[in-house]
Design a protein that fits this description.
Blueprint: H1 2-8, H2 17-27, E1 33-36, E2 42-46, E3 54-60, E4 65-71, E5 77-82, E6 93-96, E7 101-107, E8 125-128, H3 134-137, E9 146-149, E10 154-156, E11 160-163, H4 166-180, E12 186-192, H5 200-208, E13 213-222, E14 242-244, H6 254-266, E15 272-274, H7 283-286, E16 295-303, E17 310-313, H8 314-330
């Protein structure tokens, strides 16, 4: 399954090679051109000579994770975090560096803690890869190496999937499926680098892009759980893909929101609004580049994003693909 392959790949900011190579292999023979820019963004174009509106689809390849900071005398690894909540880290399984050396994140045993209610801090954690000496650990890794979460793809419950990196491999998978479809429209697929550390890849891609509309696709916040106020749920799993009105980087134009909502209603595709302005996406780069490119922000609700494992409802992903393709077809 495409999404299983994409989430299994490791691609932290600046280390997206494995994800990019996988996407490139999936698209070869299905698009007119594939190129990689200096930021590592993968750009795919299809139906280059088609008349009508030029639609760009964007998603980011990178995932949240950790970075090796130093190696201690006892062989353990101290690390920095790229967008991860430290509270979820103790006992998490990880892969270290390009060799994907298995490890586990450790913390001082609870038996030795005077205050077990204290907030977990990154400085109190370390990675154990099974080496007892600094020089042994140095054979496998060095400062600057990425540390990715180890999390298998599992289908469970009613229509649910749990795995790492749904933010934003759901977006990458949706673009691949759209570019493999028989849509006649002129389309550009943009697979961005370094979104999780400040929308860096899209800042470069936006300057080169000339399109009539960008559809930015994400895995987004979902907290539809007991004990959380309904206004803080943001999205609801199983209720369909969600459309953004605004976030920290963009305010989305009503004209295009109305268009895609009309298409969803026409085709009886469930949808919902993203009920929060928190977070920012690559749309923030596209809509201010050049003279401004309109954007649509659409996403799959994912519980527990920015952690070692997140979940989604497969029906939301399927309806995301249906809606994107139906909307693009309506622009032909």
């Amino acid at each position: 399954m495409l999404l299983e392959k994409l989430t299994a790949a490791c691609g932290l900011p600046g280390f997206e090679d494995e994800v990019r190579n996988l996407i490139k292999a999936e698209l070869e023979g299905h698009v007119d051109e594939l190129k990689i820019d200096r930021m590592g963004n993968l750009i795919a174009t299809k139906n280059s000579n088609a008349k009508g509106q030029h639609i760009a689809l964007s998603a980011h390849m990178d995932e949240v994770g950790l970075c090796v900071k130093s190696i201690e005398k006892d062989g353990t690894i101290k690390f920095a975090s790229w967008g991860v909540d430290p509270r979820i880290l103790p006992s998490t399984h990880v892969f270290v560096g390009k060799e994907k050396v298995p490890g586990v994140i450790g913390i001082k045993p609870i038996h030795l803690e005077d205050d077990t209610s204290a907030t977990v801090k990154i400085d109190s954690l370390y990675i154990d890869i099974g080496c007892d000496k600094k020089e042994d650990t140095e054979k496998h890794t060095s400062p600057g190496d990425f540390v990715a979460f180890e999390s298998g793809y599992v289908e469970f419950g009613e229509h649910k999937v749990k795995t790492k990196a749904l933010d934003d491999r759901v977006g990458c998978a949706a673009i691949i499926e759209t570019l493999k479809s028989d849509l006649p429209n002129k389309m550009t697929g943009i697979f961005c680098t370094q979104e999780e550390v400040g929308l860096r890849g899209s800042a470069v891609a936006a300057k080169a892009l000339r399109a009539d509309l960008v559809i930015n696709i994400e895995g987004t916040i979902c907290a539809d759980l007991e004990g959380i106020d309904p206004q803080d749920h943001v999205t609801t799993q199983g209720a369909g893909p969600c459309l953004s009105l605004a976030d920290r980087s963009s305010i989305y134009q009503t004209k295009y929101l109305d268009e895609i909502v009309a298409v969803a209603d026409q085709h009886k595709i469930p949808w919902q609004y993203r009920r929060s302005g928190m977070g920012g996406t690559d749309s923030g780069r596209y809509h201010t580049a050049h003279t401004g490119t309109p954007c649509i922000g659409i996403a799959v609700p994912c519980r527990y994003i920015h952690s070692a494992v997140s979940t989604m409802d497969k029906r939301d992903y399927e309806n995301l693909n249906r809606l994107i393709q139906a909307y693009i077809r309506s622009k032909d």
